[in-house]
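Entry 14. Structure prediction run on the chain below.
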Amino acid sequence: MIGRAGATTGLSQLTPGAPFSGERFSGKEGFVSAKNQSLEECLVWCLRGLLLFFLLCSVPYGVASEQGSLAAGPSPFVLIARLHALPDTADTVVALSRAVDAQVERGEPGMLLHTFDADPEDALGFVWTEVYADSDALLFHLNNADLGAYLEAVSPHLDSFTIELYGAVADEAVAALRATGNSVTHYANVLGYIRDLSP
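Output returned:
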């Protein structure tokens, strides 16, 4: 392939209509000169290819090494709340959770994801997964009267309720969550990114 590419390059430099035995290809010197030029052109293209390869290989490492921690406050984050129902109360817990889910969807635009999932190994275990647009969205959630009513109604049917926060959350929001009296563990952000999904 290299020889063929070199020959094509050489032929493309011929004057249209000129005989094949032009000055470039006349005699031994012309042949050697054309051959050397073809090798030089191949070498240039190989070096360009290697340079492109190394540039592309270095991009992911460059991006990863520049990632720092996210800004606490304006960054989205995840909250996981683990509930465990008392015996014979799982249906009640699900019904109460279904009702508050609809209320949160209608009244909290800062709640980007709000799901209630069943523990695959425990019929009495459930998990709320919540993704907040920012720390203000969590503060809004904590002050939502619908949430307060839900917690008051569901608590008598639970024997445990623990919360885990993952991400860059403002201190004020973490403090407000801990002030509810629930067990809260905050896994503070170290590094990462947030993909911009805006159109």
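The two ends are 44 Å apart (CA to CA).
Filed with the rest of this week's runs.
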